[in-house]
Amino acid sequence: MANFVGLRLPLPVLGGVCSSSPTVSRAVIRKWNWRIKGPRRMLLGLGVGVSFFSQFMTMATNSNSFIASARITAGPSVDQILKNVEWPEQFPFKEEDFQRFDETPDSLFYEAPRFVTHIDGPAIAALTKYYSKVFPPSDTPGVSILDMCSSWVSHFPSGYKQERVVGLGMNEEELKRNPVLTEYAVQDLNVNPKLPFDDNSFDIITNVVSVDYLTKPLDVFMEMSRILKPGGLAIMSFSNRCFWTKAISIWTSTGDADHVMIVGSYFHYTGGFEPPQAVDISPNPGRSDPMYIVYSRKLSTA
């Protein structure tokens, strides 16, 4: 019989790290619980690399928490998390799982440019190294890349160029500073998830440490599928760091391994993608920011 874990976790996340904190004040807990209208649930909260991470979870249903049931039948490593998943028939998350602590307009939050990096140097280097392995060679004719939720830096390999590299982000000053972009657009995907690009436009879509802010993820992933060329690659990278007041509830109340499942579910329930895969590219576990990739390709036409 499968071992299932379903832990209640009413704690929000403080600072820049999206993981549970035992030092949260009772006042903050009460405020958080009030804002999300009920108890929050943790999928696993056991972290990555736990030896008995061979079964995912099953959760009871109630009116105040999401329902999620999927089983992992492979091994414990991050690279195996999305192998042979038995997904529920319907998308298991509810509207309340995509609420945020701060529901003020994101345009206000991102109004001032932030010329900083949101992951540490070793994590950036690991992501850049990963890109160098999966990107087409620089200056490949006809290649187009979209860096979604972009900013002043995209962490592409040094000197990397393509005829078209588009940045889609929230702050124009940041996008103007990004040296790899050939063009950019400013758009709040939580207000308008419709991507302003033609069908079958891009070979690659990247998203760096921002998938956790999407309040309409299936809409955005459907748009990603639409604008990717057949066989095009979508790469979602994330750490355990975030602006916790703007990250969605289901993200801040769960752990790293759960995040892999959450992003994998976006690909799965969108349709039009190959089964998603995960990889742990963390450079120095325990000594630098963790770094995870969930990726998939748009199904190729016959």
Automatic annotation (TrEMBL):
Domain of life: Eukaryota
Residue ranges occupied by any Methyltransferase type domain in the UniProt entry: 168-235
InterPro entries: Methyltransf_11, SAM-dependent_MTases_sf
Protein name, per record: Methyltransferase type 11 domain-containing protein
Originating species: Flemingia macrophylla
PANTHER family: OSJNBB0011N17.9 PROTEIN, S-ADENOSYL-L-METHIONINE-DEPENDENT METHYLTRANSFERASES SUPERFAMILY PROTEIN
